[in-house]
Amino acid sequence: MNPSRILSLRPGWRLQWEPAQQRHVLLYPEGMVQLNDSAGAILALVDGRRDQAAIVAELDSRFPAAGGVADDVDDFLNDACRQGWLREVTP
Question: What is the C-alpha separation between 19 and 79, in angstroms, rounded?
């Protein structure tokens, strides 16, 4: 895990709430990815300014019953980077 890593959505990609589907979706030029609640909550905090530690801290405060989300957030963000949804921001 790299707690100081800052990520943003790829250029041309955007996170949006879809009322008809009652979920967040990730829109990109060729299509759309439907996200589960956890993925939507994480990506809603990926803004190109917060580092990974701040995202984890915010999610820990929102979901204290989860018992710590750092590993799950790290796994998700790594996977999202591998899939090309996110890019690392150089400060």
Answer: 26
